[in-house]
Amino acid sequence: MLVVPTLTFEQARACILEQVTCGTTAETVSIDDAPARVLAQDLAADRDYPPLPRSARDGFAVRAADLPGRLRVIGEAPAGVHFAGTVGPGEAVEIMTGAQMPAGADAVVMVEHTSVEGEEVIIDRSAAAGDNFTEAGAEAAAGEVVLTRGSRIGATEVALLATIGATTVPVYGRPRTAILATGDELVAIDAFPDPWQIRNSNAHALAAQVARAGGCPQILPVARDTVEAATPLIERGLESDLLLLSGGVSAGKYDIIERVLDRLGAEFFFDRVLIQPGQPLVFGRARGTFFFGLPGNPASTMVTFELFARAALEVLGGQVGPTLPITLARLTHEFRQRPGLTRFPPARLGADRPEVTPVRWSGSGDVPALCRANAFLVTDPERDYWPAGELIRVLPKR
Amino acid sequence: MLVVPTLTFEQARACILEQVTCGTTAETVSIDDAPARVLAQDLAADRDYPPLPRSARDGFAVRAADLPGRLRVIGEAPAGVHFAGTVGPGEAVEIMTGAQMPAGADAVVMVEHTSVEGEEVIIDRSAAAGDNFTEAGAEAAAGEVVLTRGSRIGATEVALLATIGATTVPVYGRPRTAILATGDELVAIDAFPDPWQIRNSNAHALAAQVARAGGCPQILPVARDTVEAATPLIERGLESDLLLLSGGVSAGKYDIIERVLDRLGAEFFFDRVLIQPGQPLVFGRARGTFFFGLPGNPASTMVTFELFARAALEVLGGQVGPTLPITLARLTHEFRQRPGLTRFPPARLGADRPEVTPVRWSGSGDVPALCRANAFLVTDPERDYWPAGELIRVLPKR
User: Fold this and answer.
1) Which of A51, A200, A251 faces B195 most closely, judged by CB atoms?
2) Do A326 and B185 touch (CB under 8 A)?
3) What pLDDT band is residue A212 in, cutting at 50, 70 and 90?
């Protein structure tokens, strides 16, 4: 018989991050195909950033010691043009945001604080050396690593890749992720189910989650609730980089998935986590491939993917240090729970405001309620009551 | 001369949401291509959910009035199979999660709280009618709208589409979004710039942001700082559903973009917002197309896109009520600012915890600092100091 530990939410996350390592190889893509991919090498600055001292404002480049005062304007320095002159005592150069600081100047005064009379500029306030410009190399020195292997590429990373001229980008391959829904009650999504049947929504929802997390989803045929039906499909799924099963992992006598995996020589790291939705949850490895046995109720499937399987997928795909963006918001209504589990009930964050309202739901099968939510609460297992106005942890949908 | 208002952060968001309306037409895609698209019709449940009372647990379906007690097991109800019998007094049916409740039963007792002896099950605790099952129609009634027009489709929406058998999905088209970077200092990203030049990173970063927000980006050639060069490119951009300009909108004398737009008959809704980064920021409409003049410093460009242009793009693409997921976190270090502006400095959220650390940066040109961040602080313009441990608003990168 299997003896597999029950873990807390935090222990289960830690276990996954300890077990899984990068499982794909690198390839090269164009910068415009790089978003959502994971960088496969450290990348360094090709020159100092900024390469020369750079004005942060439109205004006048001056010698701070001359101010307040009336200065002679000896020229102008627009962005993108080399300014060859030098600012001497009593002199100023009109300068634009992004332009190179002229030699001799040690401060920029914002145009809003100046007035021009003929060839002179009048500045009534003092300035300090260093005002309103950025020193050469202040953001990065030539050769310094500015993007590290394992970074997920978003818009800011694209900006940096473009800045340093990385028009092609080394990225990790997308982990091939097999999705295997199990259960005699499932019919295809284009079928009309009998009242005791449901359409196979989990496979399609998981495919969307896998793609969003950087994986390549492959939906396998539904596995019926027999060892004979499930075994060849599980074997096929184990040929991928990751196998996600849904259903078949609770204490019910038709839940034969764990038995099949055991016969295939699986190592089980945990098979129950003290959370809701999603308490029965299996994580293990068989034939060199990690697998998750996610509970079959739709909310449980989706929540446990986000909390656990997503981190495994991200690490397999080369990402370093995946995290959950758990923050805080104020409850608009009181909230109660039975203590003992970390619960993730659906909730709705206010528009542009750190307020959160629990969404009424009838439990882990209630998909309409999940669609009315844009976040999940993350409860403290030791508490049973939060009054309205109290802070509570939240995890926005991603 | 133009007279255009300066707005607060909140006023500028409200102005955009008031002006912009859906600007694209509907098309039909397969459910597996629906993620990240916007639903173009209300969709209703095809039957009651659940269609019959459904067990939420593995265990035994019972008559609550019989407990505690010893009950005769008259059969089993696995998921996906029609159970035709009726539970009479002193009887129970073994039941699986997701299975239809047998007639006569009014509660489910979890298997963990039962023991079986031969053909009987012994249950030492009492139960209440309604325990551990979901009533027919509790989640949605047949014909009830379960997904509303204007919803952005994520994994939970895919689950609901699949559940109700929506294998093809009516969605709005992606807004065509022209991206026009301006400035004499810009060179192509595959060129090697002189020390006073920079690569055109903004166009590529904006393209990534536009795609992420559901738009179709089109990068136009760089507009040089003359009316003659900028005019035809701006005219071309105005043929799209939305035009994003970067650079050319501050008080500098080469910032000719506003003048060109004015000559093209533009209406300006605001041209300055009390935020940092990104104070100079133009929002208007010309020739029927909305445009944003985003400031040219990379951090300003990206932050103002996220705060303002993204909402416009989302609404143009049919999304109803776009919001910013602003929540709270505890500062690990003290934070100071000059009051007067809502500031969005880069910051790093802790792993799985509501803690946030400001990232050191040298201002709106500092792209490496943005890449070390995974969030932005959202400061209160009236404050100048937050001690370590204090709550502050945060906006995770998306």
Assistant:
1) A51
2) no
3) very high
Is pLDDT above 60 for B178?
yes
Rounded to two decimals, the pTM is 0.93
Q: What is the mean pLDDT of chain A?
A: 94
Please, what is the Cα angle at B222 between B198 and B203, to 5 degrees? 70
Interface of A with B in 125-184 (CB under 8 A): 134, 138-140, 146-147, 151, 154-165, 167, 183-184
CA–CA dist B269, B252 (Å, integer)? 21
**How would residue B212 be classed by pLDDT, with cut points 50, 70 and 90?**
very high
Planar angle of CA A304, A306, A310, nearest 5 degrees = 105
Residue B18: its H or E element: helix B9-19
Q: Does residue B75 belong to the interface with chain A, where contact is any CB pair within 8 Å?
A: no
Average pLDDT of the residues of chain B? 94
The DSSP result for B297-340, as a single string, is SHHHHHHHIIIIIHHHHHHHTT-SS-----EEEEESS-EE--TT
> Of the candidates B162, B205, B396, which has its C-beta nearest A158's C-beta?
B205
Q: A162 vs A184, which has greater pLDDT?
A: A162
Q: For B308-351, write each residue's pLDDT tens digit.
A: 999 999 999 999 999 999 999 999 999 999 999 999 999 999 99
Which residues 40-69 of A are in CB contact (within 8 Å) with B? 45, 47, 49-52, 54, 56, 58
- pLDDT at position B1 is 44
Cα Rg of chain B, angstroms: 29
Q: How far is B70 from chain A (nearest CA, A)?
A: 20
What are the Cα distances from residue B178, in Å, to A32, B182, B289, B292, B396?
Answer: 15, 13, 11, 11, 26
Tokens of A372: 């009315």
| A104 close contact with B: CB closer than 8 A | no
Chain A: closest CA distance from residue B231 (Å):
20
- What's residue A334's pLDDT? 97
Q: Can you give chain A as a three-state secondary structure string? A: CCCCCEECHHHHHHHHHHHCCCCCCEEEEEHHHCCCCEECCCEECCCCECCCCEECCCEEEECHHHCCEEEEEEEEECCCCCCCCECCCCEEEEECCCCECCECCCEEEEHHHCEEECCEEEECCCCCCCCCEECCCCCECCCCEEECCCCECCHHHHHHHHHCCCCEEEEECCCEEEEEEECCCEECCCCCCCCCCEECHHHHHHHHHHHHCCCEEEECCCECCCHHHHHHHHHHHCCCCEEEEECCCCCCCCCCHHHHHHHCCCEEEEEEECEECCCEEEEEEECCEEEEEECCCHHHHHHHHHHHHHHHHHHHCCCCCCCCCCEEEEECCCEECCCCCEECCEEEECCCCCEEEECCCCCCCCHHHHHHCCEEEECCCCCCEECCCCEEEEEECC
Find tokens 């298997």 and name the residue: B111
Inter-chain contact A374–B325, Cβ cutoff 8 Å? yes
Q: How far is A293 from chain B (nearest CA, A)?
A: 15
Q: Give ipTM to 2 decimals.
A: 0.93
Using CA atoms, how far apart are residues B237 and B242, in angstroms rounded to an integer? 8
**pLDDT category of residue B207 using cuts at 50, 70 and 90:** very high
Asked if A196's CB is within 8 angstroms of B99's CB, the reply is yes
